[in-house]
Amino acid sequence: MLKNRIAYFLLLFTFQNVGSAHGEILPIDEVNVDGGDFYVGLVFGKEDYAAHANTHLTPFSIMRTEVTYHQYQALQAWAETRGYQISGGCNGATFEDCWPSEKDGGRHPVTNVSWWDAVIFANALSAQHNLQPYYVTADGQALKIPPEEGTDRGIRENPQASGYRLPTLAEWQVAARGGNKGLSDGTYGSRYAGKDQPASVANLPVSGTQTFSTLPVASKQPNSLGLYDMSGNVSEWLNENYAVKGGKKMYYFCGGSYMDRVGSLASCDVHTPGFAMSDIGFRLVRPIDDK
Description:
- α2 (69-80) packs across α3 (115-128).
- A hairpin with a 5-residue loop joins β10 and β11 (249-254).
- This protein has one domain (9-19, 30-290): Alpha-Beta Complex (paralog of FGE (formylglycine-generating enzyme)).
- It starts with 8 loop residues before the first helix and ends with a strand.
- The chain is α+β, with helices and mostly antiparallel strands.
- Strands 13-11-10-14 form a four-stranded mixed sheet, with no helix packed on it. It has a three-stranded antiparallel sheet with strand order 1-4-15, with no helix packed on it. A two-stranded antiparallel sheet has the order 2-3.
- It is built from five helices and 15 strands.
- It has helices at 9-17, 69-80, 115-128, 169-177, 179-185, and strands spanning 30-33, 36-38, 55-57, 60-63, 90-91, 110-111, 135-136, 156-157, 232-233, 235-243, 249-254, 256-257, 268-271, 280-281, 285-287.
């Protein structure tokens, strides 16, 4: 299916200089999102969103930025020695190719990763942080290797797990809108993550531009929760799916990208879990009660 869109610098420098190949724990910067009742949908502008809540969320934490190439490579080196199989990914990308792995210290979002890559990365990160894996096999073991196509029916999710996973569509949109802080400061109804115009908060293509590429994460302004790039740098894989004919699962990815100028943060598309593209990455969430 074609893509059809229906002071922090210091922390990043720390990421650049901390690896996990030799057993160091990969540092993850996260933001807590309050639980409660929220509106999720296609309505934007000045509205009473608290009075029109249509979904309930439990508290969770979400990564402040998309997973960077440096983080991905550092954990991959640790994970491969423990039986995890994750593809190489790219240090962001241009319209035509990956950026060199050393560009900007690997601080571009990792791209060219499939949904399977994202969830196995999540399990590996959980293992490194001594958390329970969310994605498990039929016999209850942590998923470490992408299943062969058509053999994924035995894969399970453990909703009681303390570990990392991809966000649901509702979690992702509430976080992008700013959660309770967005409701308080009036930005919950912004079409992009904290703003009605994307230029200051999202890396989206501009009319007349001849070059398209990712930027290092957190190059734009954050939203009310302090989350970066929710409306675009790359689109982000979610845990949400729906089954098409024959029971085949299609997974959502949401948000704009350097190649796709979306009309709002509610723009999403779907694809198969083995699909990877140069403008799709991910960030992870986990329950905050187990921290």
